[in-house]
Every structure is written in C-alpha cells, then in structure tokens.
Design goal:
Protein name: NAD-dependent epimerase/dehydratase domain-containing protein
Helix content: 25-40%
Domain NAD-dependent epimerase/dehydratase: 8-229
Shape: globular
Largest sheet: 4 strands, parallel
Pfam families: Epimerase (PF01370)
Organism: Podospora pseudopauciseta
Strand content: 15-25%
Radius of gyration: 20 Å
Strand order of the largest sheet: 3-4-6-10
Number of helices: 13
Distance between the termini: 26 Å
Oligomer: single chain
Number of strands: 13
Structural class: alpha/beta
C-alpha cells in the first residue's frame, strides 16, 4: 500500500480506526510529513520492482492490501508468494486487491460510444462473467493472477478484489488528494476545448463512489480478515462499491456551470463534439483509447456483495454535492 489517493486514504482510516494494527507500507518516496503523521507505521523503502523485498515482507504479514500499478505482474506475484510461505488452512493469509470498473468498461465496442449501454454489472449475479473476462479487459492480467491464486490455494490464501468505479471527494492521506477523472476532464476543457463537452446524446453513464465510502469497504474487509475471514466472501469475493450513476451529459453540464461560475471558461453550456474529436482528447496518455474511455464509454455497476455480506451502507454526500470542491481543487492544481 502506498500513500496515493486511495492507498493514502485507506492508510489514514486504518491508523485512525485501528491503532492496534501493526502496519507496514511500501514507499518509493516518503512524504515530508509522513513520519510525524504516522509515527507507528513501519516504512519499507522500495518500489514494485523490489520483488524479493516485497515477498519477504508479505511472508511476515497476515493481510496485504495492494493498491498499486494494475499492470505490474511481478509485484502481485511477489505478494502472493510471500503470503503463501507461512499460511496454513488453520491460519490463512489475506490479500485485498484494488481493481476498477475499467474491467467492465465498453471502450472496445463502439456500439455505445456516447450512448447509455443497457448492460449493468452486478457483483453477485454476474460473478461468473466477471471472473472470466477476456484478456483485453483492463486490469485483467492482475485479476487472473489473483483469481488463480484463490483457486489453487483457497484453503490458506483468501483473496478479495475491490472494484472501485470513478472516485470523488478529497483524499485523506499524505499523498495525492484527488482521483483522476475530474482533473482529466477539467484539463481537457481548460487547455483544449474551452467548453465542457459530450458526444452523441451524452447518455453514456459511469458508476461513482465517494472516497470515504470506498474506504469503508476496505475497512470492513480488513476487519473481516483480521477476524479470520468473518462474513466476507473470499476467493470469488468481487466487490463493486458504486453508490450512484451519472451520465456524461449531466457530468459535463455540472462542470461547465462550476467553471463558468468561477470565471474559468466563458460559456457554461456543454457542447456536443463529434466522435472524431473525442479520439483526439487526452493526448498526454500513451493509450489511444483514453479519451474514448473517459468521455464516451459506460461503466455501469451495482454494488450488492458489500451490502449483503459486509453491511456496507454508503453515507457520503453525492458526486454533485462534492463536485464544486473537486473541480476547484483540479483548477488550483493547474488542470
């Protein structure tokens, strides 16, 4: 776990709610205030390429929370290898891995670019499909490794995957304070289009969750793991966390209004862009689908498992209640 947006917020909550936990974090760079904020947290200096160090440290842990690079296979394999070294059926180890709704996003199918896809994914009823997604799905390489470990060693390694959706709200940790989509959209508006935008009807919809509600799922899973598994689902424990769904048109309308209100852009009404122009957005990314993925596709999910087995009850304010604060933070950062 590293102190970026999600990892840092999870760390802050764990330290506050469970001071009795013995916590170690992997850090490439240690923030200036880290040791004063978290004096009882052990620091492991390194990065995801330090696989021997990761495996050795994981072998001494009961629970690993992995929030890092979704494409870095050696690090997740090292965590699994380390956890298995000292695990037994009577004393299993636990791996909680962050994924994202990019796994079920329809970016590869142009049928619904800019339109609402009727497909809504449920983390209980669709578990068979979720655990057999094509290799082209985002995050699939890591999810396959975790799922195989859960099948091969399920008696002594308990795995869960948290699939966050788009996240909003201020981070609570010492690292990055914002998620990605709001700053990305603001950056595109301010430095390129000069207007909020959508494509086609703008009906394409995304699932969203406040950082505090997402962290609550982590805490509940961590508590279940600390209790030997608790009532949580492991192995095929796939957890969506979404609390609401917002269309690109509504998202663009709200952000346009905020940016106009604060004098950042001249016109608040969003404009409809042709698909060809959407392909040209997010040019800083190396992945050619980034603009399509961010502004034209669907990630529609229902979070049922966490509510059923963990007692998850989202309590945070809605996206639109928090959006002005998030937008202004992105502007201040130089979006």
């Amino acid at each position: 776990m590293a102190p970026r947006y999600i990892g840092g917020s999870v760390l802050a909550a764990l330290v506050k709610q469970h001071p009795e936990y013995d916590i170690t974090v992997l850090l490439r760079n240690v923030p200036d205030t880290f040791t004063s904020q978290y004096s009882n947290v052990k620091i492991l200096r390194g990065d995801f390429d330090d696989t021997a160090l990761i495996a050795d440290t994981a072998s001494k842990a009961d629970i690993v929370i992995h929030n890092g690079n979704s494409k870095h296979e050696p690090s997740i394999k090292a965590h699994i290898d380390g956890l298995l070294r000292n695990s037994t059926p009577s004393s299993p180890r636990f791996l909680i891995r962050l994924s994202g709704t990019g796994a079920i996003a329809d970016w590869a199918d142009s049928s619904y670019y800019g339109e609402k896809n009727p497909r809504v994914w449920n983390d209980i009823h669709d578990i068979g499909q979720l655990t057999s997604l094509p290799d082209t799905a985002l995050h699939r390489n890591i999810e396959k490794i975790v799922q195989k470990a859960a099948v091969d060693h399920g008696d002594r390694l308990k795995c869960a995957i948290i699939c966050s959706g788009e996240v909003y709200g201020p981070g609570k940790g010492p690292g990055r304070a914002q998620s990605q989509l709001v700053p990305l959209f603001c950056d595109e508006i301010i430095n390129n289009t000069k207007r909020a935008f959508y494509t086609q009807s703008g009906g394409n919809a995304r699932s969203w969750v406040h950082i505090d509600d997402l962290v609550a799922v982590y805490i509940k899973l961590g508590e279940a793991a600390a209790a030997g598994g608790g009532n949580a689902d492991w192995g095929h424990g796939y957890y969506f966390t979404a609390t609401q769904e917002v269309s690109q048109l509504d998202f663009a309308t709200a952000i346009g209004r905020i940016l106009k209100k604060h004098g950042v852009i001249e016109y608040e009404e969003p404009v409809q862009l042709p698909l060809d122009d959407i392909w040209k957005t997010a040019q800083k990314s190396k992945w050619r689908y980034t603009g399509i993925y961010a502004f034209a596709c669907n990630t529609r999910t229902v979070s049922e498992r966490a509510r059923k087995v963990l007692g998850y009850e989202p309590k945070a304010p809605s996206l639109f209640d928090c959006l002005e604060e998030d937008v202004l933070a992105a502007v201040r950062r130089g979006a």
